[in-house]
Amino acid sequence: MEILADFWDHRTDRWGVILDAGSSGTRLHIYRWKDPARAAKHADLEELHRLPKLKTEKKWTKKIRPGISTFGEHPEDVGEYLRDLLEHAVNVIPEEMHPDTPIFLMATAGMRLLPPRQQRAVLSEVCDYFRHNTEFSLPDCDRHIQVIPGDTEGLYGWISANYLLGGFDDPKGHAHGKDHHTYGFLDMGGASAQIAFAPNATESAKHGDDLKLLRLRTLNGESTEYKVFTTTWLGFGVNQARQRYVKDLVDSFLLEGEHEVPDPCMPKGLRTTESGGFIDGTADKLTLVGTGLFDQCMRMTKPLLGKDKPCKNEPCLLDGQHVPAIDFDVNHFVGVSEYWHTTHGVFADKNEKVYDFATYQKKVLDFCSQEWGDIEDGLETRKKDHSRDAQEACFKASWLINVLHDGIGVPRVGIEHTSGTTGNVTKEIGEAAKEKGFLDPFQAVDKVDDIEVSWTIGPMVLYAAGQVPPRDTAKELPVGFGANIKGIPSDWQHAGSNWTALPLNGDDDGWTDDLTEDLVDHVKTKSGSSFLLFFLVLLLLFFFFRKRDRRMRLYTRVNAMLRRHHRRPGSPRKTSRGLSALAGKLFGRPSHSYERVIEEGDAAQFELGDVDSDEAESDSSGSVRQGRTSGLATPKNNVHAFDDLRKQPYPTSAIDRSGMAVRTESRERLVPQMLTAGRRSRTGSPTRLKSPLMSPLNED
């Protein structure tokens, strides 16, 4: 029965691939979830009110350096750069799932700094490489391969954090007071920083035009909506901030004829170039010399916040950018990426979760006042990357403290208090929030339940939620996000997926036929009489509990598959009599049979899908090759059914996979009569619609 359970899991899984193309490197993430319609059928009442459950594993993640923005001057090399990531994804995801697996590359701040012409060239090369070297679903390069805006990155991060923490699935358990149950999100990379949060009711009413409307769909088909503020500060990532700091330092302190500049944001005695590299002994090279004066470092980095810039739309935080007032009584923020690495990488044990300002500041002061030689001695047994981390740690710590407390206004726990904290608010906090410990205004996180908190989860949560069939198709609005107005705004970003009904009840002819075929495929990889006996018993049970006409159809399919799997590749076809005698006894038909001969390969290859002209190669690709799409497949004589499928209750995005282009070497040479060859539709359903987006999936 364990084997059957494995098959069932494989048949009901979806996969998604997303590459986070950041400023310092590109990280591959792979996610997996059960088909939402199947999951809903077997879910209990509590699970029906939750979003589809995504799974990932550490071994599915892989990172390479540097970032793709370094290919701006030579975009033709970006494909080879991504080769290892693609090969990793190909090896993780079962081969038969590749055409049904969406692949995304979303670039962030590093690519935003490139000129538009270079951005387009790099993205075009990426799309072309993906299409020529994988079978993953890539119907529209403009949507799948793109530089995402900073506010979109922040929103994805907000979705990820609340999805993992449980703010979406358990509102009561995560109540923070004032009917608020979501968490704020802070992210900082090398080039930019983001903030995203749901303001309290007062601020939401006051700044409604500044918010984004997010719509998700739980397994029971109901929609949930959230109003979220998100913005980004380009140039406020740690690397870009460091470049601005060094420029100001050199302009202010470099004396004429000298080549050394004192740097209070480095440990005593550390000597580096402007870019942070070690000095190679050249006497006339500009050198930064660490003085270890952290208090002075804090004072010199604070002006980089841009708090003195005019604010055209009150209130503002950093760089004169508008942000609604933050109620830290209910807006509990989690910080990821540099917020985690800077608070835990050098100064704290990774098991120390809670950020405490006074404790953190003391650790930073103790570390940064040391001689660099003493710090180096403590790094000898560590990884080589720790040396670079240690020399940058003091600047990063000063920048993080300034951004958090003087920039965003997060209260210094233990020193400052939020304006409205009362005992009543504490009582209102949900049990799940207390259990997880997210009660402070800010907490740095890396993982939740052993899953990395990454903004890349956000697009996949949307994609999976978009596959849930709505309860009322006539009234249901699409999953996605856009301007905070009723209906479907013009800037609406669709989830990128689609839903369709599955044969969950009644006639199960379709999925049992497919399961039988998978069992035949899988038996080749197993050995031993016990498994063979189990397989035969299971096959006979499937066979005898079906109606007469279905038994006949199943016999035909299994007999054809057995002939195919027992014949060596390239060998001539021979009419198999393996089941013919048995068929004569069971169905009263002659023992001899005639085989229809078509081109080498499975007859299912000729089950043609609708290829919409709108889903053709994107202009960003620069290639004339048809984009690989996947959607509703049907025999040729039922192709008229696609006219109805295009009439959906709401517009779908270009990411929707409206047809699967079957690849054969001589497809264009097939005569019209042969286009009707393939699997027969189940009884009573002349327009059997098999959607790879919603039909059960296979896995080895």
Automatic annotation (TrEMBL):
Biased composition (Polar residues): 626-637
Domain of life of the organism encoding this protein: Eukaryota
Signal peptide (residue range): none
CDD domains: ASKHA_NBD_YND1-like
Transmembrane segments: 528-545
Region of interest: Disordered: 611-700
Keyword field: Hydrolase, Membrane, Transmembrane, Transmembrane helix
Entry's family note: Belongs to the GDA1/CD39 NTPase family.
Classification via PANTHER family: ADENOSINE/GUANOSINE DIPHOSPHATASE, NUCLEOSIDE-DIPHOSPHATASE MIG-23
Protein name: Apyrase
Lineage: Eukaryota, Fungi, Dikarya, Ascomycota, Pezizomycotina
